[in-house]
Write a structure and sequence with these properties.
The protein contains seven helices and ten strands. The protein has a six-stranded antiparallel β-sheet with strand order 4-5-6-9-8-7. The chain has a two-stranded antiparallel sheet with strand order 1-2. It has a two-stranded parallel ribbon with strand order 3-10. It is elongated, with a radius of gyration of 23 Å.
Length: about 250
């Protein structure tokens, strides 16, 4: 598959020729999501160009979201990005969204802690300084690959079992509905772009400084009372945000 000859008579830069060649392999399906590319040195030797030339070509493809570099593992064809519409028809958990796509989502618990209500979480859940909050801190995995870190906060007096319950590979929304008859009915979600910290990079298996998406949710129950405040960090390489817009017709203007 990796047979390509750089046209040394062409005015097109070598790195761009290599970039377009690999892009074509990906678009045509000859290279599939998860396929590993040869190391930069090896690929440079095969093509008769410098490692820097290869690196520039690969970096451009990474910038376009077609390749990803895994720490200490190499360069791979990026997974197909999951679309997240900004206009959404229903409120669903990550587990439910994955099921609709034919995937399963697991969860590895990092911590379940009792903590005082302070700052943003106190305001979001409409609590007082004397209230206690349960923090559920987990890494979400798809096919054993980490895709997000989530920290979910709940009022302890309302959901006390969340402090001790085994939450490995379980849907929190399913637990809330079955155990407490409390399911989020409405939510306000916000997204902010960022770069991975050292700890985030370690948990998500990406390079420090890699692009990530910070996602915050305040979810309300049937009565309109806040029941969940959560912060999540997603690997930006896995997602594409889609905005659906419509121009009003003359009767609506």
């Amino acid at each position: 598959m990796f047979t390509f000859t750089v046209d040394r008579q062409s005015p097109v830069p070598y790195y761009y020729q290599i970039e377009e060649w690999i892009r074509g392999l990906i678009v045509s399906g000859q290279l599939k999501p998860g396929d590993k590319l040869p190391a930069e040195v090896k690929l440079g030797e095969q093509l008769g160009v410098s490692r820097l030339t290869v690196r520039r070509a690969l970096q451009n493809l990474m910038n376009d979201g077609l390749l990803v570099r895994r720490r200490a593992k190499g360069t791979f064809v990026a997974p197909t990005r999951r679309q997240i519409p900004f206009v959404r028809d229903s409120l669903r958990s990550m587990t439910e969204e994955a099921a609709d796509e034919g995937r399963t989502i697991g969860a590895r618990v990092l911590a379940q802690e009792l903590m005082p209500a302070v700052g943003e979480m106190m305001r979001a859940l409409q609590l007082s300084w004397n209230d206690q909050i349960v923090l559920v801190h987990r890494v979400r995995l798809s096919e054993d690959v980490p895709v997000a870190i989530e920290a979910c906060y709940y009022h302890y007096s309302r959901f006390p079992e969340l402090l001790t319950m085994d939450l490995t590979d379980r849907s929190l929304y399913e637990i809330l509905e079955k155990e407490y008859d409390a399911r989020p009915q409405e939510a306000v979600d916000s997204f902010v772009a960022g770069i991975a910290t050292t700890e985030e990079a370690r948990l998500l298996d990406i390079d420090k400084g890699a692009p990530v998406m910070h996602y915050t949710r305040v979810a309300m129950d049937r009565s309109g009372k806040p029941m969940e405040f959560s912060r999540s960090v997603f690997r930006a390489e896995d997602y594409r945000f889609v905005i659906r817009v419509r121009r009003p017709n003359s009767e609506e203007e």
